[in-house]
Amino acid sequence: MLLNQFLLLGAVLFCIGVYGVIARKNAVMVLMSIELILNSVNLNLLAFAMRSGTADGHTFALYIIAVAAAEVGVGLALVLLIYRNKRNIALEDLSEMKG
Amino acid sequence: MVAQNIFFAIFAVIMVVGALRVVTSNNVVHAALWLVTVLAGAAGQYILLSAEFVAVTQVLVYIGAVMVLFLFGTMLTRARLGEETDLNNKTWILGIPVALLLFGTMSYALIDSFGDEKLPENAVVVSTQVISDQIFGPYLIPFWALSFVLLAATIGAIVLARKD
Predict the structure, then answer these.
(1) Is residue B44 part of a domain?
(2) Which of A36, B34, B124, B137 is most enclosed, with most CB atoms within 10 A?
(3) Is B103 part of a structural domain of the chain?
């Protein structure tokens, strides 16, 4: 196995996730795209961990998984709150703080 | 080596197709279910990278917990679960050149730096014991910080989502 095949797969997933963050209007879909990005980072970390033969990359990957779980929990609570106040979770409608 | 490459190709195709459907699907629930295939494919790749514990954690945390959260979030914020037409921004087309440019830059940098460097042929599987020695040894302070992050996230989610 080449190192680059994993890194390039991670790059593809990262770019698809970035496209999703830019293109999507629904807040839940944006959170899903962020999950794609975080997974591509984990793939890179584990590929480099196998290259170096140490377990540091595994530790980082586990921490990223935990942070992603916390992020989704708070993010969906925010989305729920916005939905309760506005009956709508389209991100382009959230412009109250525009100057 | 050949079998590993075959499985890598299968998982990679599943992941890329699933990721494309996540960002193009017109149905939020379908997008969440396509995300499951991406996450499962990622777990398969982690096993190919001899990271068994991370793969199992991926299945437990992502496919188990995070997907349930997503489906709950979808169902609590949507009156209907069917197809929708306006899931994209008006300027969604800008995302395509940005993503392609980013991918071009990243793939050029990766191929330039690593070329056809091979991963070690018979790498030892990193056992759970080694990972726990790492977490409770040199990475103990980040582990504590992470437990505070999770506590804060739990309290924050409860405070935000509570009706009062």
Answers:
(1) yes
(2) A36
(3) no
Contacts of B136 in chain A (CB under 8 A): none
On chain B, the residues whose CB falls within 8 A of the CB of A95 are none
Helix (H) or strand (E) segment spanning residue B52:
helix B52-57
Interface residue of B66, B78, B136 to substitute, partner A, most A CBs within 10 Å: B66
Put simply, the answer to whether A4 touches B90 (Cβ < 8 Å) is no
B64 lies in the same domain as B131:
no
Q: Provide the residue-wise pLDDT of chain B in tens; the chain has 164 residues.
A: 788 899 999 999 999 999 999 999 888 889 999 999 999 999 999 999 989 999 999 999 999 999 998 888 888 876 555 667 677 888 888 999 999 999 999 999 999 998 888 888 777 788 899 999 999 999 999 999 999 999 999 999 889 888 76
B23 is a domain residue: yes
Q: What is the distance between the alpha carbons of residues B103 and B65, in angstroms, rounded to a whole number?
A: 30
* Beta carbons within 10 angstroms of residue B52's beta carbon: 17
Residue pair B30/A31 in contact (Cβ under 8 Å)? The answer is no
Q: What is the ipTM score, two decimals? A: 0.90
Would you say domain A26-88 falls under CATH 1.10.150.20? Answer: no
Domain of B67, in residue numbers: 1-81
